[in-house]
Every structure is written in C-alpha cells, then in structure tokens.
Amino acid sequence: xxxxxxxxxRCYDLCKVLxxxxxxxxxxxxxxxxxxARELSRQSPxxxxxxxxxxxxxxPLFVLLSGAVWGYCIRQGKYQKxxxxxxxxxxxxxxxxxxxxxxxxxxxxxxxxYTNQNYPIYCLYGLLLGLDARHLWYLLVLLWxxxxxxxxxxxxxxxxxxTLPICAALFLIANRMPQLFKLRTACKYALFFYLxxxxxxxxxxxEKLARKxxxxxxxxxxxxxxxxxxxxxxxxxxxxxxxxxxxxxxLGANLTEQEGLxxxxxxxxxxRDGFGLYLIHAMVIYLLVHLLGDRLAPGLMFLLSVAVxxxxxxxxxxxxxxxxxxxxxxx
Length: 331
Hints:
By secondary structure, this protein is mainly α. It has helices at about 5-30, 45-55, 60-75, 80-110, 120-130, 135-160, 165-175, 185-200, 205-210, 215-225, 225-230, 235-255, 260-265, 265-290, 300-320. The model has no long low-confidence stretch (mean pLDDT about 95).
C-alpha cells in the first residue's frame, strides 16, 4: 500500500505527463486555429477544435501543479531561506529561458518569418523584455509566481485559502498591468498557482472524493467540449479551466496505483524528460510547419509534428544530459 506522500507525488507526476502530452498536441494543432502563429492554406475544423479544447486548461494545469509542489515543499520545511530559494529558481528557470530563447526560439522565429524583426531586435524585445517569448512565457510567469511566494508564504503557512482573495483581485486587474516581462500573464495565473497550493493542503480529502467519483472523470473531460462550441466570456473561460484542472487531478488520483503505467518505458521517459521536451518541441513544430505546412494534408502534418517534435525533444534532452549540460535545462 502506497503512503499518502507517495500517492500525492505520483498524482502530480501523472498530471505533469498528461500536461506535457497536451502541450505537444496543442502546439501541433493550433496552427489550424485562429490563434496559430501562421495561417495555413489548408484548414481543419477538427484540429482547430482540438486546439481550443487543449488550450482551455492545459497551461493553467502546469501552473497549478507548480503551486501544489511548492506548497508541499513548504509544509515539509523546505525553502526556509529566501536567498537560496530565489537563486535556485533563477538558475532553474532563467538559464533555460536564455539559452533556448537565444539559441533556438529566436533563430527559428526570425529565419522562418514568424516575426518581422531581425535577430537582435527580437532578442531584445521578444525575449529580454518578455514581449514575445513564444512558449517560453511559462518560465517568466513561474519566476514572478515564485517571487510572489516570498510575500504570501506567511498566509500559506497559516491557511492557504487566505491567498485566494488576493489572487482573485490580481486576476480581475490583470488586464491593466503591463505586458513587460509577462507581468500581466503572471497576475492572471497567480490564481491557479495558489489553487494548487490549496489543493495540496487538502490533498487527502480531495483524493478520497476523486476515488469515490472515479466514474465521473470521463464526464468531466466530455464537459470540456463546451470550450470548443461555447466560450463567450471570461467567466466561462475560468469555468473550463477549473473543470479541466479538476478532471486532470481526479484522473491522476485514480491512477496512482497503476504499476503497469508507472513502469512503462514511455511514461518513464515523459516523466524524466518532460521539461526538456517542453523547451524544445515547439520550435521543431514551427520549423516543420514552415517547411511542410502548406504541402501536407492537415492530419498528416499534425501526426508528423507530434511524432518528430516529441522524438527530437526527448533525444536532445537525453543528449544534453549525457553531455553533462543538464544545467541548460535547469537541472
């Protein structure tokens, strides 16, 4: 029988793997939606709908899991000193941001024509000022959120629920905040980060509820189809985000004791290399779309993008690690 902490850790890992899979599928399908970085001559309503479905909750899920892990670490007595904590987060997030931004994102975005700016200008405005960081925006947002924990940690230790009114206020005023360094986005995502802290604090009763209602997990994911057909305002957007995060956590809680899944080679690779895959895969898709996007049928382009970007992300992650360059991925 697994302990509560073991089940909790496995649940978070399962949800991270699910979120990693979703982000690859999302980036491969979003080019066929209005939010794509480039309009393709061939369109696919199915892939556009798939992108809408995934984008309704997958990045808030990543942020929620980061908050849950941070909350667990705080309750275990970690991160007591602000200096080492901030230095560690700057190293783990800042080095990958700068390295992959300057060495991968900027060359692909500039050379493939995804921006009208030249390399130095894009690096300055897009990356260093955070105005067009592409998928690396997530790292900047996490830096802001971890910085916020220095002020809100006393509330978390007292009762994490006290952080939610502050985060709700930040969410409501986010659109008035500057876009510089993704501060506006960080204000929006603070709510999901501290929801993760709360979820971790109440993990045991939430796990019991999830196991009692395991039959409802597929229903929760089916309800998310509403994000494809009906999503007219910010309130419904929040509803779909909460629904998607809840469904993912329920799924993870019900799969923690599935040893076959835990021991599978594919799962172990995704769990170990998920962060590196996230850093690398998007620009591989950008490059493939630039070369083949208007030539291949949407379905074939989607499958090729998923397969090649996932393989490239995992292989390059393993290669960097074997070359003892894990620091470039925050390790």
